[in-house]
Amino acid sequence: MPTYRAPDGTQLAYHVHGEGDPVVCVPGGPSDSRYLGDLGGLSAHRQLIVLDTRGTGRSALPEDPASYRCDRLVEDVEALREHLALPRTDLLGHSAGANIATQYAARYPQHVGKLALIGPGTRAVGIAIPGETRRAVTQLRKDEPWFPHAFAALEAITEGTGTDWDAISPFFYGRWDAAAQEHCAASRPTNDDAVAGFAAEGAFDPPTTRARLAHHKLPVLLLTGEYDVNSPPRPVAEFAALFPDATYVVQPSAGHYPWLDDAEQFVATTAAFLG
């Protein structure tokens, strides 16, 4: 597996899928990037360079736990670009990884060709997602057999009285079938320090990030699922409005992992955008 060294010396790993012009992919979590797979077959159109963020997958644990902070992870992406000797690169971020990719684009716009944000987290730009917005998305699933138990667990978590995160897992998938359950089991973060440190104080500076993004006309795709309770369509549309050249797409009947729910649709949309 190829590796490189971050600016602080931490050895980081990445995976390569397919051939052609590269797209650097930043996973969410922070968790093992294997959950991305080859993004439903996107690797048939572009070479995917998938980063294991520090402390996850095959990447080493850093000496300084403070380096798990989102804004500091941006420099790991820049070090990867330099390692690959790419003057510019297209960049894809999923979920929490979209916060890294967004801050990277704001900090290094000269090094980004196109930016694809899939089921994007919105903390980097300061867009809050109210509980009622998430509830509205969950109601689209009210006829599912697992809905009553999952919704009760979500309400308890929202109210601060529950912690049964496993129970709400079906809300993250367009179909809660065997494939989704297997993917869910393999996608859970395993590094508690990385999760806790990601959004530590100082990780995000929304006013600065917004101001920088508003002045750069890089093409941006923001794609989320109709059922995505993590990244509901309404706040993602608000996110898209921050960019001068944004393409906003809601994939029907998809959850937080749209390449699993309808790989053909996801790949067609994303490949067409990336070119």
Task: Describe this structure in a few short sentences.
The protein has about 280 residues and is of the alpha/beta class. The chain contains ten helices and eight strands.
Task: Report what the structure shows.
The radius of gyration is 18 Å and the shape is globular. The protein is built from 10 helices and 8 strands. The chain has a single domain, classed as Rossmann fold, CATH 3.40.50. It has an 8-stranded mixed sheet with strand order 1-2-4-3-5-6-7-8, with helices on both faces. By secondary structure, it is of the alpha/beta class. A hairpin with a 5-residue loop joins strand 1 and strand 2.
User: Structural class of the secondary elements?
Assistant: alpha/beta
What's the main sheet like?
8 strands, mixed
End-to-end distance, in Å?
A: 27 Å
Please report the number of helical segments.
Answer: 10
Q: Rg from C-alpha positions?
A: 18 Å
Q: Please, what is the CATH homologous superfamily?
A: Alpha/Beta hydrolase fold, catalytic domain
- String of helices and strands: EEEEHEHEHHHHHEHEHH
Count of strand segments: 8
Flag low-confidence runs.
Answer: none
Q: What proportion of the residues form beta strands (DSSP E)?
A: 15-25%
- CATH topology (level 3) name: Rossmann fold
What is the CATH domain class?
Alpha Beta
Strand order of the largest sheet: 1-2-4-3-5-6-7-8
The CATH architecture assignment turns out to be 3-Layer(aba) Sandwich
Mean pLDDT: 96
- Backbone shape: globular
How many distinct domains? 1
In helices, the fraction of residues equals 25-40%
